[in-house]
Input
Amino acid sequence: MGEFRYEGHRISYDAYGEGERLIVLVHGLLMNRHMFDRLGPELAERGNRVVTVDMLGHGRSDRPEDLRLYSMPLFARQVVALLDHLGAEDAVVGGTSLGSNIALELAVRYPERARALFIEMPVLDNALSAVAGLFAPVLLGLKFGRPVFEGLSLATRAIPRTHHLVDIGLDWVRQRPGPSQAVFEGLLLGETAPHREDRVKIEHPTLIVGHPRDPLHPFSDSGMLLEELPNARLVEANSIFEWRFNPERLNDELSAFLDEVWAPKLRAVAGKSA
Output
């Protein structure tokens, strides 16, 4: 567990493993670093240094009720601040849903800080109708049903952590509604992802993991991103549940990708030592 200060606010993270092969994993919207409680240690056992971070407004990090603090560019800046705090020139950056969009934003705005990208369930052009259909009622519920959500938050926070999948759902309702509303409003006021003309300029090695039959994260967005990024490859998950219930195959895919990404740097270090 660690933390640092970002523009007066506390950002928290967990770290697994050590060494040069750094990967930063970013959670989904209104979730937290616990999404990667199993993936983090697994990748660390395979020789990687893994940092899972709570973005501002999420998890153990500060959660101010100010929508002006939440946007994709600001989230990308927080990841850069994390790399500065860790003393890392670059890292493989990625995550799930919101986390994947933050990684794309970082690659566009700070390309030198991303060694490669890991993109699971991106939310791009083909997801707009589903995003509007889902987020609008949730936002209205948070705004007008605040006393109910405050009660749910207090009640569920008393439930001990037991199973990672159960906890992912509980973490969503454990949060206080005020900060969650601010996160929603901040993101909806801005761009949810870089535009296509910016995405096609991303040259980083990229692993995309897409899920079929997921309207909020349509597989067509993953396919579109594959066509846009010249150095990307796409892995199709069996479903949104594969990585949560039967993760071995996708763990192997991500681990092999990391081996490929870091091999040139490791060879260069070995050559300097010889």
Remarks:
- The mean pLDDT is 89.
- Strands lie at 2-6, 9-16, 22-26, 49-53, 91-96, 114-120, 206-210, 232-236.
- DSSP finds eleven helices and eight strands in the chain.
